[in-house]
Amino acid sequence: MKSVWRQPLFLIGFGIITFFLLGSFVFEWIFGNEPKQTLYLEENGRVVEGTPISPKWIHPLGTDQFGYDMLAKIMLGAKYTILAAMAVAALRMLIAVPLGFALGTYLKRHRSWVNGLIDPIHYVPMTIFAVMLLTPVLWMPPDGFSTGIVERIVIQVIIMALITIPIVAALIGNEANLLYRSEYILAARTLGASRRRIIIRHLFPQMREKLFVLYGQQVVETLIVLAHLGLLELFLGGTDVDYDPMMADPPRSIAFEWAGLFGNSFRYLQAAPWLPLGPAICFALVILAIAAMIEGYTRATNGQVKLPKRKKLAFVSDDTIEWNQKQLKEKMVLLQSKEKQKVKS
User: What is the pTM for the complete model shown?
Assistant: First the structure.
């Protein structure tokens, strides 16, 4: 693992993720959990621009239709978006890895028909399952939510993790089954090693790098599904719905997470393109950062690390080497002449 921290791609991706996470907590600690609101801009006592305000020096990413600073909303929602995606992927791997190893070793005879049941799921978008299962949890009823925001986030993380566990478990099971039939595993089984010991001592160490790459891929997939749910107005932690029959506000995100910001502002793509552009760029940066970490980790595990060049140290000077070579030549000439004299005598 030490070589990973010498890989530039891994460091760049890790730096971007750290910036958003630490920046989100620090921003909330300094400025609070409510973004600054600016309803209009004045110059010389005249109103020059109203909401939504285009990007300015005081509002680098502009403001939304209600005058709230978009940069502040993005920084406040960064921790919810990234940590939720990591939690979904971690829970998914925590359940799928033991199931996959069991499928590839203990249940290897049943692996073919299990894969036959799971393969059709690959062709169905995960967003469809997520919408069907999460709508009763995230869409606010007319009487309001009966659950808290933390409870709704936990339920959403669990449901999103359970959706793709069969696919991930089957993938791990196929890879574990290939390794289980290799020669060194057969040798371990011949010597009396149990399947549990083979999984712990042999299969898991061999698949550790692939599992890390698979975890990163699951984080990216979760971010994409969250973005799709945001377009469908199912936001992380719940969707605040206004049921006023006369002048109802559009559904809005409660936690300022990026999928909610993107879904709320997508309708303003032509009139105020800076509104959806900010969350979209942040989504793209985090996805590229995770991809860079995966690529850097892969290169580091394959030995493609740029180590610092070491200076060549000469313990013997060049003059000494030349003198030794001359002495050796003279000794060889003397030995040859002595051998010739012995032959003549």
Answer: 0.80
